[in-house]
Design a protein that fits this description.
Elements (H helix, E strand, L loop, with lengths): L4 H8 L5 H21 L7 H18 L4 E5 L7 H7 L4 E6 L2 H13 L5 E5 L13 E5 L11 H14 L5 E6 L8 H6 L3 E5 L8 E7 L7
Parallel strand pairs: 1-2, 1-4, 2-3, 4-5
Antiparallel strand pairs: 5-7, 6-7
Helix pairs in contact: 1-2, 1-3, 2-4, 3-4
Length: 219
């Protein structure tokens, strides 16, 4: 495994203390150790994942407001684990339906002593879903039930799931440029704002989509 992890993490998390950097580095090592046999991250290229996924998760975390968070479809914990490490006094629920991810997240919670984390095995598209945090986050949520939907249909579907099944007043999505192509109707309905993440590593950018449900139009 690359010995460059600590160096890369240190170059990204320059505003965080060395203990935070150490914990994030340990998480990345756990992530890739588990990935060797369970395929839980999008790429086997450690440098790429740190520069793309971890860096973007850091910028995503810095844009969030709220006191408690549900990361739905969290997978290997990106961005939820990064949020939990950086927000140790705030509750972070990590929600996924797959046992492989749940087992890994339970290990990470124990290994990193993340007392603010709750790991929840649940299908967020199931009949009994309920989010009791004030904020819900996701990173390009995917599920076979919605995989064939166009982006706008998928976005609207997920935002309505969150709005109608819990107490969340806000939702954030870490996503790509298609969020800029949403119709005016969709933008207005969900009081949507999008903020670009400027990456020092890549020419392509991701975006932070923010929805505030107290301002949304019922329909």
């Amino acid at each position: 495994m690359s010995s460059n992890i600590e160096e890369l993490v240190g170059s990204i998390f320059t505003k965080e203390d060395t203990n935070i950097q150490r914990i994030i580095s340990k998480y990345i090592r756990l992530l890739f150790k588990w990935h060797e046999t369970n395929n839980i991250v999008s790429s086997s290229n450690i440098d790429y994942v740190i520069k793309r996924e971890i860096y973007d998760s850091y910028q995503f975390n810095n844009a969030l407001s709220g006191n408690s968070f549900s990361d739905i479809g969290t997978g290997g914990g990106i961005p939820g684990i990064i949020m939990a490490i950086l927000k140790p006094n705030m509750r972070v629920d990590l929600i996924d339906r797959k046992t492989t991810f749940i087992n890994f997240l339970s290990l990470v919670k124990a290994e990193l002593n993340l007392e603010n984390v709750t790991v929840i095995k649940k299908d967020v598209l199931g009949p009994d879903v309920f989010f009791d945090t004030d904020t819900v986050v996701m990173k390009n949520f995917s599920n076979k039930k919605i995989s064939k939907m166009e982006f706008e249909e998928k976005f609207s579907f997920m935002m309505n799931i969150i709005k109608n099944n819990g107490t969340a007043s806000k939702a954030y999505m870490l996503t790509g440029s298609p969020v800029l192509e949403l119709s005016e109707k969709c933008v207005s309905k969900f009081s949507l704002s999008a903020t670009k993440i400027s990456s020092p590593f890549f020419s392509t950018s991701r975006y932070i989509a923010e929805v505030r449900f107290e301002d949304t139009i019922n329909s």
